[in-house]
């Protein structure tokens, strides 16, 4: 029977081509949009985790309350002990301390007077250890535009755009003017080892990267760090796991009365991305729902048109004694075949486009140049196992629903008037 | 008879005149006269009571007139050798570890001096208050057992860090014993309270003061004068930029 129906569809292209094209287009758009949104979320989460919050972040409660103002006076002290405890309690995660700071980068002339000066956002990380996690997280080696990465204490890398604005080159001295954790003015000399470009507008405007120990000394916080980042080994953010871990840590380690006791937050809560992630989740659901609804209406319409065209054929079949239910069921079976074929084709085309975008990406740098979000200039799609199936079911349901609604007309035909109708 | 008549009229007039309140500007002038000298040398200690701990910073300062000050920090080891030079409306700081002289300007002036409750802007202020404030005398009050004039000062210019102040001036010693500093909105920004005074060369000076930035956590900054010399000879090169790198 299925073979019979299939042959019918193949031989009568007008019955199959238009619905297949509609389903293919819809499914392709769904698959592509899903992969694109996934890519966007992945890049956003990864950039935020690597450059800002980790998957979980441990700070003091006082620091967390004003984290955007980089309150290093509220930094964690005795970080070696805190990290040792975190490694003992959560051995799966990788932990790394960081200090974020603000200040001015001052370039002296030959007399030691200010030649040029610009505000900087500083990131102090463990750059020099052999087994440092930061090499992978910040990808400094690949980001180098001129010069090289720091190889010894007292060396820094700065954003290439900043270096151009300050008119400095690798090898020159720069003086950082900032505040110690006690609020005094901190002045420290560094040698610019290289310039970098991360492809993230928020970082490329005015970042300097320096070894943690150098900044601990410069900002008078020898055993301190503003934050300790924790990252899952697969580099993927697991919201439920992170939330459970933070709740467990805070119930055990956080002292309500002591604002300097350590507290753990998750990427979702610490980065302010919570709303974005919720919006994306809702957005994906809405896109699929709209697709199913719109396709159903289009296919219903197509079914009605088809029914009108097949008015005579259905009439003959009814006149020959075929049951209305049987006709309806065969129409539904045909729709499932069309849906199945269109969905497979749409998924294939959608995956191909998404794969192209996954490899090549879209450069949105010009749009993001004033952005403060940690998002790369090149956005790539991301194909996940779910991308393979996300369009299939809606494609099938839409075709089935469309035919089911249009096919109701079969039951409205009066067998007594069939010959009269067929005569005209 | 006529003499007696004139004497009877003159006496109450003189009494009334002597009882009349001095003007705010007169009191400020007296305060200024008490505090000012051609030169000054002081060794001081700042105890900064921060959120987490207290720190002490010692410094030696030389002052010429009201607009030129040179300060060298003596302790702790981290700050030792740091120098600061104020010449009129310019302020430089020298850091020995970097051998750099930095002009403190713009938003850096709002930063705290060595993490204390004082900002660089406070240091740059014209200490001659009648130049920048109009004073109004309020009813007198008693402060730490001393009777004080209470003056409400309002800025004469727009670009002043503190739009208004309330100061308590010792009526006999002409030392400011307490000061509240307000923003234009009326919000209290900083307070200063003198805890101890000392007599130096027939003048009364504050010896131990507590500054408090009320917008900042912590217990304020104690400023203790350990040594003070009035009108000592100070070499002229102390007030030139060259002194910073010496």
Tell me the overall shape of chain B.
globular
Which structural class is indicated by helix and strand composition of chain A?
A: alpha+beta
Adjacency order of strands in the biggest sheet of chain A: 2-3-8-5-7-6
**Cα end-to-end separation of chain B:** 78 Å
How many domain units of chain A?
A: 2
Question: Structural class, from secondary structure content of chain B?
Answer: mainly beta
Please outline the major beta sheet of chain B. 13 strands, antiparallel
Query: Gyration radius of chain B, to the nearest Å?
Result: 21 Å
Helix content of chain A: 40-55%
Total strands of chain B: the figure is: 13
Strand content of chain A: 15-25%
What is the radius of gyration of chain A computed over CA atoms, rounded to a whole number of angstroms?
A: 31 Å
Count all strands of chain A and give the number.
12
Number of helices of chain B: 3
CATH superfamily of the domain at 21-59 and 112-232 in chain B: Lipoprotein localisation LolA/LolB/LppX
Average pLDDT over all residues of chain B: 88
At CATH level 3, the topology of the domain at 21-59 and 112-232 in chain B is: outer membrane lipoprotein receptor (LolB), chain A
What is the helix content of chain B? 10-25%
Provide a descriptive summary of the structure in words.
The complex is a heterodimer of chains A (424) and B (246). With 424 residues, chain A is an alpha+beta fold. Chain A folds into 2 domains: 2-47 and 275-423, no CATH class; 56-231, no CATH class. Chain A contains 18 helices and 12 strands. Chain A has helices at residues 2-11, 13-53, 61-65, 79-89, 134-138, 140-143, 160-166, 201-204, 212-218, 239-253, 267-270, 274-309, 311-319, 324-360, 365-368, 385-390, 392-406, 418-423, and strands at residues 56-60, 94-108, 114-125, 144-147, 155-159, 173-179, 185-196, 207-211, 227-231, 262-266, 362-363, 378-379. In chain A, strands 2-3-8-5-7-6 form a 6-stranded mixed β-barrel. In chain A, helix 1 packs across helix 14. The radius of gyration of chain A is 31 Å and the shape is elongated. The mean pLDDT of chain A is 85. Chain B has a domain at 21-59 and 112-232: Clam (outer membrane lipoprotein receptor (LolB), chain A), CATH 2.50.20.10. The longest helix of chain B is centred in the first third of the chain and has 18 residues, at 2-19. Helix content of chain B is 14%, strand content 47%. A 13-stranded antiparallel beta sheet of chain B has the order 6-5-4-3-2-1-13-12-11-10-9-8-7, covered by helices on one side. Mean pLDDT of chain B is 88; it is low at 14-18. Chain B is mostly beta strands and 246 residues long. In chain B, strand 1 (39-49) and strand 2 form a beta hairpin. At the A-B interface, strand 2, strand 6 and strand 7 of A face strand 6 of B.
């Amino acid at each position: 029977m299925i073979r019979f129906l299939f042959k019918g569809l193949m031989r009568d292209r007008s019955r199959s081509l238009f619905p297949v094209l509609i389903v293919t287009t819809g499914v392709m758009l769904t698959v592509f949009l899903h992969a694109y949104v996934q890519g966007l979320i992945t890049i956003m989460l990864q950039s935020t985790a690597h450059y800002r919050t980790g998957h979980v972040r441990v700070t003091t409660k006082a620091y967390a309350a004003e984290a955007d103002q980089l309150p290093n006076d509220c930094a964690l002290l005795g970080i070696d002990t805190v990290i040792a405890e975190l490694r003992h309690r959560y051995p799966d995660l990788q932990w790394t301390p960081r200090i974020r700071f603000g200040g001015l980068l001052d370039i002296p002339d030959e007399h030691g007077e200010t030649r040029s000066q610009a505000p900087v956002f500083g990131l102090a990380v463990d750059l020099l250890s052999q087994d440092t996690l930061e090499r992978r997280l910040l990808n400094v080696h690949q980001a180098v535009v001129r010069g090289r990465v720091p190889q010894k204490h007292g060396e820094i890398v700065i954003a290439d755009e900043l270096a151009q604005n300050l008119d400095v080159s690798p090898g020159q001295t720069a003086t950082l003017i900032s505040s110690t954790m006690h609020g005094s003015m901190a002045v420290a000399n560094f040698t610019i080892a290289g310039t970098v470009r991360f492809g993230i507008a928020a970082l490329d405007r005015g970042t300097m990267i320096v070894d943690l120990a150098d900044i601990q000394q410069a900002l008078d916080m020898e055993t301190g760090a503003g934050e300790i980042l924790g990252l899952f080994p697969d580099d993927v953010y697991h919201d439920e796991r992170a939330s459970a871990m933070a709740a467990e840590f805070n119930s055990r380690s956080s002292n309500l009365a002591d604002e300097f006791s350590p507290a753990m937050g998750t990427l979702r809560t610490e980065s302010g991305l919570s709303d974005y992630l919720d919006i994306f989740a809702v957005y994906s659901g809405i896109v699929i729902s709209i697709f199913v609804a719109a396709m159903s209406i289009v296919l219903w319409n197509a079914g009605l048109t088809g029914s009108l065209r097949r008015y005579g054929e259905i009439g003959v079949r009814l006149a020959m004694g075929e049951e209305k239910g049987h006709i309806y069921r065969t129409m539904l079976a045909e729709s499932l075949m069309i849906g199945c074929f269109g969905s497979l084709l749409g998924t294939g085309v959608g995956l191909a486009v998404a794969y192209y975008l996954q490899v090549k990406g879209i450069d949105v740098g010009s749009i993001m140049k004033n952005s403060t979000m940690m998002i790369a200039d090149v956005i790539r799609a991301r194909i996940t196992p779910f991308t393979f199936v996300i369009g299939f079911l809606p494609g099938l349901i839409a075709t089935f629903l469309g035919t089911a609604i249009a096919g109701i007309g079969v039951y409205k035909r009066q067998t007594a008037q069939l010959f009269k109708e067929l005569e005209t | 008879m006529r003499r007696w008549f004139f004497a009877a009229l003159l006496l109450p007039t003189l009494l009334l005149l002597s009882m009349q309140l001095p003007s705010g500007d007169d009191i400020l002038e007296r305060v200024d006269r008490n505090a000012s000298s051609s030169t000054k040398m002081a060794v001081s200690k700042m105890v900064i009571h921060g959120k987490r701990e207290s720190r002490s910073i010692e410094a030696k300062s030389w002052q010429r007139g009201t607009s030129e000050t040179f300060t060298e920090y003596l302790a702790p080891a981290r700050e030792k050798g740091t120098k600061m030079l104020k010449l009129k409306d310019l302020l430089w700081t020298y850091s020995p570890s970097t051998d750099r002289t930095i002009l403190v300007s713009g938003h850096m002036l709002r930063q705290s001096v060595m993490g204390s409750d004082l900002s660089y802007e406070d240091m740059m202020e014209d200490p001659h208050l009648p130049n920048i404030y109009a004073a109004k005398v309020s009813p007198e009050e008693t402060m730490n057992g001393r009777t004080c004039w209470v003056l409400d000062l309002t800025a004469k210019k727009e670009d002043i860090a503190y739009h208004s102040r309330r100061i308590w001036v010792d009526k006999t010693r002409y030392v400011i014993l307490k000061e509240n500093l307000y923003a234009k909105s009326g919000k209290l920004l900083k307070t200063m309270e003198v805890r101890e005074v000392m007599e130096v060369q027939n003048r009364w000076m504050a010896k131990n003061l507590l500054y408090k930035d009320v917008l900042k956590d912590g217990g304020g900054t104690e400023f203790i004068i350990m040594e003070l010399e009035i009108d000592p000879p100070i070499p002229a090169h102390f007030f030139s930029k060259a002194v910073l790198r010496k």
